[in-house]
Write a structure and sequence with these properties.
Length: about 500
């Protein structure tokens, strides 16, 4: 433990109007184990193992979330597609398993689309089918030492994802070149070029394919062999256009996960921005970054991996919506839960803006999360909800600072800013002994804003924290396992001036 300096928050409160809100939502002395670590507003499976979000598609008023799932254990095994649906991205109905392993292998990561126009013939022009595109992994082929044990297959549904029919012509993209790590297809409709477009990871790069009907695919090009960041295996790409600063200029974003090689170690997700001509992706020239190399990280924390965006969000909505797996392969199978393992991040809206750091994604929590805010009552300075489940906004003038969140066991989580970087330090935040690979030292992220005020938006949910700094220009997601809920906070260090603090207790989502 570090010595705890005298809190300076009471002195800061006089600097500006301050609103502190609190409702007692539990018992601060509760000891957290297993179900006590289960998030209350992040999606988790009722039981079993979960990793990558898959097949995220919007259809008939429902957001579909499929995910890598092993129902028979709390560690990775033969992969299925679990399934849940939501009307508001907050409350989720868990449905029966959608896709199960078959003679071609396990059901690895992939995507799904609404086949508008019935190009595949699986549905009807007035009642289009959902088509899922996924990697199949042949464990026997892998065990035999072959390299062609992964390939791309499809299934379709004509009842909004409740039942699925496997296409008899699978695989639709065979592994003819015998490439290991040949997986995770993301398919979108490339309307400007009149084609279905598939991108998937192929060892240290991605491959692009095109199809008129989702069944017959033609190779177009590769990207990434000479790009930055080859410290691990590339996985789970996503590819989509976004308006720059909401205007007429549109750039294409290629989101790419890597393991290992993340921004602070282990798993991580980065991205490229550029242009697409219907056959090739060409990155745009970018200025030098002051605090990082040429890699643009989507999330600098250790616990946001394999994230992708929803397909077919209605034009009336207009958002590009993202969700990630809230864990890290370094320790995901050892975290201290038993009946269930893993959660998803909160859903986030992605925007693209141009500035001194080049084209950068900005992430903001979806507005639907506001419905979780509880009615609250004013309390004394430095209090937070007794169950450790809350949303916090705090604005400070540009100066070094450290926010310390603590509990009755004298455990502390530190979130701060110094020398142009944000950091999260879980060194003293509770249990880490479950895995030698669970790092506890401070993880850092550059500040990508020159605004005079630092704005932090935080979500705490029992065993996780998500930090959105400067309106989502810098984002960090981290797991933590305190022995008791974090129930208090104070500010340390420097002479920051607090302009605003809001704390909302959050109620449980219906999962």
């Amino acid at each position: 433990m570090h010595p705890r300096p005298r809190p300076i928050l009471p002195r800061l409160l006089s600097a500006a109007p301050l609103l502190l809100l609190l409702v007692a939502c539990g018992t601060s002395g509760e000891t957290l184990t297993d179900e006590g670590y289960r998030p209350v507003f992040h999606f988790t499976p009722a039981s079993g193992w979960m990793n990558d979000p898959n097949g995220m598609v919007c259809h008939d008023g429902e957001f579909h979330l499929f995910y890598q799932f092993y129902p028979d254990s709390n560690v990775w095994g033969p992969m299925h597609w679990g399934h849940a649906v939501s009307e508001d991205l907050v409350d989720w109905e868990q449905l029966p398993v959608a896709l199960t392993p078959d003679s071609l292998g396990y059901i690895f990561s992939g995507s799904a689309v609404v086949d508008q126009g019935n190009t595949s013939g699986f549905g009807a022009a007035t009642d289009p089918a959902l088509v899922a595109i996924y990697t199949q992994h042949d464990p026997e082929g892998e065990a035999a030492g072959r390299n062609d044990f992964e390939y791309q297959s499809i299934s379709y549904s004509t009842d909004n994802g409740r039942n699925w029919t496997t296409y008899p012509g699978n695989p639709v993209v065979p592994n003819s070149d015998r490439i290991r790590d040949f997986r995770d297809p993301k398919v979108i409709r490339d309307s400007a070029h009149g084609q279905w477009l598939m991108v998937f990871a192929s060892q240290d790069r991605v491959r692009f394919y095109a199809s008129p009907d989702l069944k017959d695919w033609t190779y177009l090009s590769d990207f990434g062999a000479d790009a930055a960041n080859h410290d691990g295996v590339w996985e789970c790409p996503d590819f989509f256009p976004l308006a720059v600063d909401g205007g007429r200029d549109t750039a294409w974003v290629l989101v790419q996960s890597i393991n290992p090689g993340g921004a602070n170690g282990g798993s991580g997700t980065f991205y490229f921005t550029g242009d697409w001509d219907g056959a090739r992706f060409v990155p745009r020239a970018e200025p030098a970054y002051p605090y990082t190399d040429s890699v643009k990280w989507l999330d600098y924390g250790r616990d946001n991996y394999a994230g992708v965006t929803w397909s077919d969000v209605p034009a009336s909505d207009g958002r590009r919506l993202f969700l990630g797996w809230m864990s890290n392969w370094d320790y995901a199978q050892q975290v201290p839960t038993t009946t269930w393992r893993s959660a998803m991040t909160v859903p986030r809206r992605l925007n693209l803006e141009d500035g001194p750091h080049g084209l950068r994604l900005r992430q903001t929590p979806v507005r639907e999360l506001e419905q979780l805010r509880r009615p609250a009552e004013p309390v004394a300075d430095g209090g937070i909800p007794a169950d450790g489940v809350f949303e916090m906004e705090i604005s400070l003038r540009d100066a070094p600072f450290e926010l310390v969140f603590d509990n009755q066991a004298n455990e502390e989580l530190r979130i701060g800013y110094r020398d142009g970087h944000y950091y999260i330090d879980r060194s003293d935040a509770g249990g880490a002994g479950f895995s030698d690979a669970f790092p506890t030292g401070p993880d850092t992220a550059p500040r990508l804003s020159d605004a005079p005020t630092i704005d932090l938006h935080l979500y705490f949910d029992r065993s996780s924290v998500e930090l959105f700094a400067d309106d989502g220009r810098t984002v960090m997601t981290e797991l933590l396992f305190p022995s008791r809920p974090l129930v208090g906070y104070h500010l340390n260090g420097g002479e920051p001036v607090t302009d605003r603090v809001n704390i909302w207790p959050l109620k449980a989502a219906d999962n």
